[in-house]
Design goal:
Blueprint: E1 8-10, E2 14-16, H1 21-27, E3 35-39, E4 45-49, E5 60-64, H2 69-82, E6 86-90, H3 96-109, E7 113-119, E8 122-127, H4 136-160, H5 164-192, H6 197-200, H7 208-235, H8 241-259, H9 267-289, H10 297-332
Parallel strand pairs: 5-6
Antiparallel strand pairs: 1-2, 3-4, 6-8, 7-8
Helix pairs in contact: 2-5, 4-5, 4-7, 4-8, 5-7, 7-10, 8-9, 8-10, 9-10
Length: 333
């Protein structure tokens, strides 16, 4: 909804505008309440309740489980990702054990969603974590460390023939998926304005789109590492010896690319990004030429890992250019 107001000058130097009465009532402001005002990159203003005494809107969603279980699960996950705090799952035809299974599935695959109420035909979840509990930077760091550990375990298994660590890789992939969904939830909350973008760790709201894509590529890389682990379990680690060299190369590139995720990038770093992209393309060319792995599922996984690392580098460059644009815009204001 668009409101128009005239700017008034009070005391000769203070510029004021009145707040829409409907909005003030809806967010629970009163005389003396605090509001936060953020200057956005395009020089517009974002205003939201800033005092601790103001209760934020309770975002609730109801998901009715139907015969199309896959669609119902997708809607449930989407409700979590977009930022609902309270999610009611309704299933009148479900038995107590089926509801228990839904509750177990949800809590195992999300961070923060816990059962707060359950009765015949329904179960209620509430998200008990927020950006202060697990900041995006920490979640990102944990995600990349887990993926690095999975790469190490697959390399160890191929080197030694020991398959015990492969199950750990597959189990760890579920935790990586949870972190991925949790980070998406934080980014959506910033976009919707339920949290400030700075509390999520963004320099501007415009960065949310880029970080969502980066996190998606990180999650996909972990999936491809898990796919190599699955093939090693199926065929035996010894059958993937030819894959080991390329996995180690990509492991090194992964560590180098991810170390830049939360750092400020200057001219030297951007130049290194270009060289890294060339190096990754060279690795891909080697994989395609290697007749010992050509056409295998593992070769395809390796190629996908490399391509996604290049995607991440391109997005990091995009973010840096965006930050430069915002800085120059603010400097000209």
């Amino acid at each position: 909804m668009l409101y128009r107001r005239k700017v008034q000058v009070v005391g000769g130097s203070t510029y004021t505008v009145s707040l829409p009465k409907e909005w003030v009532k809806s967010v629970g402001l009163r005389n003396g309440s605090e509001v936060a005002i953020e200057v956005m990159p395009d020089l517009t203003l974002r205003i939201y309740p800033g005092g601790k005494e103001v209760e934020r809107l309770e975002l609730e969603s109801e998901v009715e489980f139907s015969k199309d279980a896959e669609l119902s699960v997708a809607r449930l996950v989407a409700s979590y990702v977009v930022g609902y705090r309270r999610i009611t799952v309704s299933c009148p035809t479900c038995s107590a054990s089926q509801l228990e299974e839904i509750a177990r599935w949800v809590t195992e695959r999300t961070i923060g969603l816990e059962v707060v109420e359950k009765d015949v035909g329904y179960v209620v979840f509430r998200c008990l974590v927020d950006v202060s509990t697990l900041p995006m930077a920490e979640a990102l760091s944990t995600l990349t460390k887990l993926t690095t550990r999975s790469m190490e375990d697959v390399e160890h298994s191929i080197n030694t023939g020991d398959q015990s660590s492969l199950d750990e890789v597959l189990s760890r992939d579920n935790l990586i998926d949870k972190l991925y969904l949790y980070i998406l939830r934080q980014l959506n909350q910033a976009l919707l304005g339920t949290v400030s973008y700075s509390s999520v760790g963004l320099n501007s709201i415009a960065e949310a789109m880029y970080w969502a894509m980066i996190v998606r590529f990180l999650e996909r890389i972990a999936d491809y590492v898990a796919s190599i682990a699955e093939e090693a379990k199926k065929l035996g680690p010894g059958r993937l010896v030819s894959v080991l060299r390329y996995l180690k190369l990509l492991h090194e590139k992964y560590d180098e690319v991810t170390k830049y995720l939360l750092l400020k990038h200057g001219v030297e770093e951007l130049a290194r990004f270009g060289k890294l992209m060339v190096e990754l393309r060279n690795v891909e060319a080697e994989i395609r030429r290697d007749s010992t792995i050509s056409g295998t599922a593992s070769a395809e996984s390796l190629l996908r890992i490399s391509a996604h690392l290049r995607d991440i580098l391109e997005l990091l460059i995009d973010i840096q250019v965006l930050r430069n644009l915002i800085s120059s815009t603010l400097a000209q204001a």
